[in-house]
Amino acid sequence: MPSRTRKFRGSRTHGRGIKAGRGAGKQGGTGNAGLHKYKFKSMLIYAPDHFGRHGFKRPPEIVEQPVARNVGELGKLIPELERAHALVRDGAVLVADLSRIGIDRLLGGGLPAEKWRVFVAHASARAKEKVELLSSPPAGASGP
Q1: pTM > 0.85
Q2: Which in 21, 42, 100, 115 has the greatest CB count within 10 A?
Q3: Distance (Å, rounded) from C-alpha 4 to C-alpha 14?
Q4: 114, 91 contact by CB (below 8 A)
C-alpha cells in the first residue's frame, strides 16, 4: 500500500481542500470563536474570567448625586430661596442657606450680580473667591 504522500502526488491539495494545507491550517475560527465549545478547556486555563459578570453595581438609589449650581446662577435662585425662608438681606449683602433648597455644591462659573454670603456643604476654590462662605447657616433665616 502506498504512503499518503505518494498517493496524492500530482494532486494539487493532497485531499485537504484549498486553504487547510497552508500556513496554520484549520484553526477552528479566529479570535474567540469556540470558547463555549471546542476551545472551552483552553479558555478555562488561559482566560477563566472571560465570561460572566464581575464586580458589582451600586443601586442607583444609594449613589450620591450632588446638586450643584454656579455662582452666576445665584440671582435666579432668589425667589426660591425666599419661599424656603433661606434668604436674609443684610444691607447690600444677600445671606443665603443653599442647603435649604437642596443645593449641595457651589461651583465657580459666572459672576454674581450682587454681594453674597452663602452657607453650602461644598464649594469649589473659584466659588470661594467669588462669594464669602459661612461656616454655619445664617441666623436670621427662620424655619419653614
Answers
A1: no
A2: 100
A3: 8
A4: no
